[in-house]
Amino acid sequence: MRYATFNHQGRRQVGEVSADGRTITALDFPAAAGERGMLAMIEQLAGGASAPATTGPALPLDAVRLEAPIPRPRRNVWCVGRNYHAHAKELQASVFRNNTADPASWPIFFTKAPETVVGPSDPVVLPGAAVSTQIDYEAELTIVIGKGGKNIPRDKAMEHVFGYTIVNDVTARDVQMRHQQWDLGKSFDSFCPMGPWIVTADELDGTDTRVRLWVNGELRQDAQTTDLIFDLPSLIETCSRGITLYPGDLIATGTPAGVGMGMTPPSWLKSGDVVRIAIDGLGEIENRFVESPR
Ligand code: MN
User: Which residues surround ligand 1, an ion (CB under 5 A)?
Assistant: First the structure.
């Protein structure tokens, strides 16, 4: 199934996308729950409820506005750094310079604030040159946790995956580097485009799918998730060590090689740039980067 959070005639709802991807049908949900998007439904399912029935007409997808499937996560988005070998190499002299631990020992985790999340076709607002001049993109397959848990062993980890979505882990490189710790440079308003929906785990093998990103039509990132340094079960196992994961928690699994900072010379996003991410079996998101309103 593909479940989306969408806005139709000013009301936020949750819906099921048709198999051909052309229409969406609302799910029968109280309005207050629908306001929380897919987060409310994932919590209900994790609590043992069955999936709500569809209600009303099948709406053409282009007649609705897709929002982030989880428009406001209940807490920060978990993110993984340095998780593709080729990406580790391209930033070994910059971002990863001070990370002297063996890349194969433990994954790097950091978080993005919930308020960073915007929809799959929403604008990303550049913070202005006084704040950052080095804005970069990162295409990432993102795990959506279904059943919560703590100290989840890797052989049980995939049972906790509700599905997958796409995230662009937009990053201010100068701010990321300046503060040693990454949360500030990753948490600017609108720096987490997400969508276009959630594909359930029974319909997509997240452990083996293709992740691509284009800037203004130019292919920049292209990798298979089989190239992950830390695979999906080990990320869930590590993130849940001593920490309870909750239904609807998000784990962005890291980005492939090809970020702007890895280019010679580095290439930063500017106003008017359009970044598109496609993950096979999942869909696409496309976001325009725009000047900050004064
Ligand atoms: Mn990232």
Answer: 138, 169, 255
